[in-house]
Write a structure and sequence with these properties.
By secondary structure, the chain is an all-alpha fold. It contains eleven helices and no strands.
Length: 233
């Protein structure tokens, strides 16, 4: 679909795949079905064990939440290159394709449901910072796993995958967890001790005072993103 979603016909896809048009429709139901299949395959990640199963194993067996979130940052860099480009292409065409728009909404809702499961696990284990609700944690994980963020920083700004994964891990750690890990125990690239307090102080100076009235959660979230992105450079 290098010519764009709308300009690529099922006949062209069938010719490229060396199958009949009927085979495409029977197997996938048309272009939206192909998008779904590509995304589902991409979500499996690389290797014989699906990424979701590997993620669940880490989440359920690793006691340190910082290492869990660091692993999730790595999973984002594994999955996003396989899913974000096709989702970006489809999003650009969804405005004039109701079936495609419905599919993208379904995919986004499924990702939010998945992130809610992960957020609930962090909450049930007592890992979330005080004041962070389950809904807020779910939204934060949903945001940092979004194809839109990957598009902005990797596809448009050219960030290397390793840099992007480190940014995602650091930002999730700073946004969700209390600053209790020592430098020796924290995963590579994690914020230094006291970083949350420093972030809070700078937030008040840079954002909350400048853009009052701003809800505290929005200000803190925005500032965490800015500062972690700067530190990851």
């Amino acid at each position: 679909m290098t010519r764009g979603y709308a300009a690529t016909t099922v006949a062209a896809i069938a010719a490229q795949a060396r199958v009949s048009v009927e085979t495409i429709y029977k197997g996938f139901g048309g272009k939206p079905g192909l998008v779904r299949a590509i995304v589902e395959r991409g979500l499996a990640g690389a290797g014989p064990v699906p990424a979701e199963q590997r993620s669940d194993q880490i989440r359920d067996t690793v006691p340190d939440p910082r290492r869990i979130l660091a692993a999730w940052g790595a999973f984002v860099t594994e999955i996003a290159p396989r899913t974000a480009p096709i989702l970006t292409l489809a999003r650009n065409a969804a405005a004039s394709d109701p079936e495609l728009a419905a599919l993208l909404g379904e995919i986004s809702a499924a990702r939010l449901e998945r992130m809610t499961v992960n957020a609930r696990a962090l909450s049930d284990a007592g890992h979330l910072r005080r004041g962070i609700t389950l809904a807020q944690a779910s939204d934060i994980l949903w945001t940092y796993s979004s194809p839109e963020l990957y598009e902005l920083l990797v596809l448009r700004r050219g960030w290397p995958a390793e840099h992007y994964g480190r940014f995602i891990a650091q930002a999730m750690i700073a946004a969700l967890l209390p600053p209790t890990a020592t430098r020796q125990d924290a995963p590579a690239g994690s914020p230094a001790p006291g970083a949350a307090a420093r972030i809070s102080q700078i937030c008040r100076a840079r954002l909350l005072d400048r853009y009052e009235p701003m809800p505290a959660q929005i200000g803190r979230f925005t500032c965490v993103t800015q500062l972690i992105g700067h530190d990851a450079a």
